[in-house]
């Protein structure tokens, strides 16, 4: 069954939102708080160990009601049924989008093309568990009998970003295995990673859904060559593992059939960390923690699937994106985690959000006449405060931001945690309230600054405020809470795509550059004149003269 295909701008809710926007854009968040003493409570969702506070957004009860009406009018509920029932909602690639099946309990049933996929999911999970237990305990060794000390994940895009982000985020939970990630085709990347590694004690996990990706295969081949400089040929079987849907190509590479972890074409690359693509995660933190990550994601799946839209965290967050993107003409959104562990989180989200919703053609094949796909970026606080916060506070652009903070630190340092959290709360307060010129003048007067000086300085010190933020206040960073958080963003992407009436699960936009690069690569090896524009021709010829 096809997804509903409704132009959001043709809905009644959209017209009403436009009128409503004219009114609300003049309103200051400070005043909205004054008008409604229960605002914080009214716009906060308490769910499990999460407090999600939407109250510092430029919305009121009418905005919420109209956005919810928009969700109804574009038939979000119906679309969700297709998503969760294993239907081929990735219509342009004719595939189901069923990564949520990867975190379901063993007793569940998810039919993809009429077949329950859960038994296969659990077979692979069992294989991951056994393999990880053996490597971590030292039962499984390298070709000289030494236990493994290092794991290198070789993959790119969804076969790198998810595992790399989760391993970094769960550093606190890591065991003795050192994990590394090689992704870029830049030869300096893999060389730097392997330069201090001992082939005898290193395990290589090649992750590629298609097993045709240039970067991954180049890195895998070069690393195998390096490995074989000191190891015998049959040692490859003990040190190289693969995760892929393309079993034939994996075997051609020389990987032992026992060392192949399958995945399925109903799991998109950027949503695949829950499958065997997450093998490096399970190796780094142990299978139990990996499983807790999946359990957390499943809890968010249930919340998303069963909660009414007015209390539904991913639905409300997605609707807010539409509100800012399509009515306030906002271009970007920031994600600011107040924990250093999540320093890869925005990078990870960039693929999920921008590869999914960076589309300009609707589900009927027509060019859209409204904005889609937000640009996502961010860095951990408090570092971000000393880098780009100036622009968010006083620049000309409106940048809604998600602030993610955790009540309990992992290492238990109270002094640092209090400082961190005071910044976490202060920033959203400052962004919302700002500081008026009158307040600035008063403050400067009290400091004894001269009248003349106040005149000169005051305009530059004004903070307009009214900058929207959503606060995710979570008890502690655990595998489970991280799973919930990632799944939240996955569902938010889905809802945005449904409302914008685009296909979120293909990525044709990455193809053209790949094709051209393959052509140019061939040109490096022949002398014929290149047939490009004069700029590209010139650059290629300079490169050829220098390489
Ligand atoms: O960037 C395009 C893309 O197809 C991503 O969607 C995917 O995650 C990545 O390349 C890697 O693909 P593979 O896992 O097949 O090597």
Automatic annotation (TrEMBL):
InterPro entries: G6P_Isomerase, G6P_Isomerase_C, Phosphoglucose_isomerase_CS, SIS_dom_sf, SIS_PGI_1, SIS_PGI_2. PROSITE patterns: P_GLUCOSE_ISOMERASE_1 (PS00765), P_GLUCOSE_ISOMERASE_2 (PS00174), P_GLUCOSE_ISOMERASE_3 (PS51463). GO terms for molecular function: carbohydrate derivative binding; glucose-6-phosphate isomerase activity; monosaccharide binding. The keyword Ion transport does not apply. Its EC number is 5.3.1.9. The active site is at residues 355, 386, 514. Its main location: cytoplasm. Keywords: Cytoplasm, Gluconeogenesis, Glycolysis, Isomerase. GO terms for cellular component: cytosol. It comes from the Bacteria. It catalyses: alpha-D-glucose 6-phosphate = beta-D-fructose 6-phosphate. The keyword Translocase does not apply. Pathway: Carbohydrate degradation; glycolysis; D-glyceraldehyde 3-phosphate and glycerone phosphate from D-glucose: step 2/4; Carbohydrate biosynthesis; gluconeogenesis. GO terms for biological process: gluconeogenesis; glucose 6-phosphate metabolic process; glycolytic process. It is found in: Cytoplasm. PANTHER family: GLUCOSE-6-PHOSPHATE ISOMERASE (PTHR11469:SF1). Belongs to the GPI family. HAMAP family: G6P_isomerase (MF_00473). Catalyzes the reversible isomerization of glucose-6-phosphate to fructose-6-phosphate. This is Glucose-6-phosphate isomerase.
């Amino acid at each position: 069954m096809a997804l509903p295909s409704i132009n959001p701008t043709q809905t009644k809710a959209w017209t009403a939102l436009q009128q409503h926007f004219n009114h609300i854009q003049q309103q200051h968040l400070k005043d909205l708080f004054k008008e409604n003493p229960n605002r914080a409570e009214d716009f906060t969702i308490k769910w499990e160990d999460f407090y999600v506070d939407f109250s510092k957004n430029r919305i009121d009860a009418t905005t919420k009601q109209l956005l919810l009406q928009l969700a109804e009018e574009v038939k979000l509920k119906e679309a969700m049924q297709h998503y969760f029932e294993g239907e081929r909602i990735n219509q342009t690639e004719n595939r189901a989008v069923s990564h949520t099946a990867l975190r379901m309990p063993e007793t569940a049933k998810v039919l993809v093309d009429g077949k329950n996929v859960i038994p296969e999911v659990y077979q692979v999970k069992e294989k991951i568990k056994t393999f990880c237990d053996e490597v971590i305990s030292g039962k499984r060794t390298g070709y000289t009998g030494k236990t493994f000390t290092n794991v290198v994940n070789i993959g790119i895009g969804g076969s790198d970003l998810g595992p790399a982000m989760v391993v970094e985020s769960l550093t606190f939970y890591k065991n003795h295995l050192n994990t590394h990630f090689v992704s870029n085709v830049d030869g300096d990347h893999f060389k730097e990673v392997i330069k201090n590694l001992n082939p005898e004690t290193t395990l290589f996990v090649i992750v590629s859904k298609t097993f045709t990706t240039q970067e991954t295969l180049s890195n895998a081949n070069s690393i195998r060559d390096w490995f074989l400089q000191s190891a015998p040929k049959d040692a490859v079987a003990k040190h190289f593992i693969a995760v892929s849907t393309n079993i034939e190509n994996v075997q051609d590479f020389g990987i032992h059939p026992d060392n192949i972890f399958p995945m399925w074409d109903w799991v998109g690359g950027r949503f695949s960390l829950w499958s065997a693509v997450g093998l490096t995660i399970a190796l780094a933190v142990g299978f139990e923690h990996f499983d807790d990550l999946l359990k957390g994601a499943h809890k968010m799946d249930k919340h998303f699937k069963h909660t009414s839209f007015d209390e539904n965290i991913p639905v409300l967050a997605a609707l807010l994106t539409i509100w800012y993107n399509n009515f306030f003409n906002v271009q970007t959104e920031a994600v600011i985690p107040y924990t250093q562990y999540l320093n890869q989180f925005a990078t990870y989200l960039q693929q999920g959000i921008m590869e999914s919703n960076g589309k300009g053609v609707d589900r009927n094949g027509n060019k859209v006449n409204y904005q889609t796909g937000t640009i996502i970026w961010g860095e951990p606080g408090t570092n971000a405060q000393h880098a780009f916060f100036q622009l968010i506070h006083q620049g000309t652009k409106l940048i809604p931001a998600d602030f993610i903070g955790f009540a309990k630190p992992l290492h238990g340092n109270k002094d640092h945690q209090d400082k961190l959290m005071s910044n976490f709360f202060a920033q959203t307060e400052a962004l919302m309230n700002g500081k008026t010129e009158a307040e600035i003048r008063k403050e400067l007067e009290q400091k004894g600054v001269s009248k003349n000086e106040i005149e000169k300085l005051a305009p530059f010190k004004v903070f307009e405020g009214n900058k929207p933020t959503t606060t995710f206040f979570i008890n502690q960073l655990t595998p489970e809470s991280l799973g919930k958080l990632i799944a939240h963003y996955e569902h938010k992407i889905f809802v945005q795509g449904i409302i914008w009436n685009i296909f979120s699960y293909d990525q044709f936009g990455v193809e053209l550059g790949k094709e051209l690069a393959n052509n140019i690569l061939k040109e490096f090896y022949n002398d014929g004149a290149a047939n490009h524009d004069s700029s590209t021709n010139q650059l290629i010829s300079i490169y050829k003269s220098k390489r």
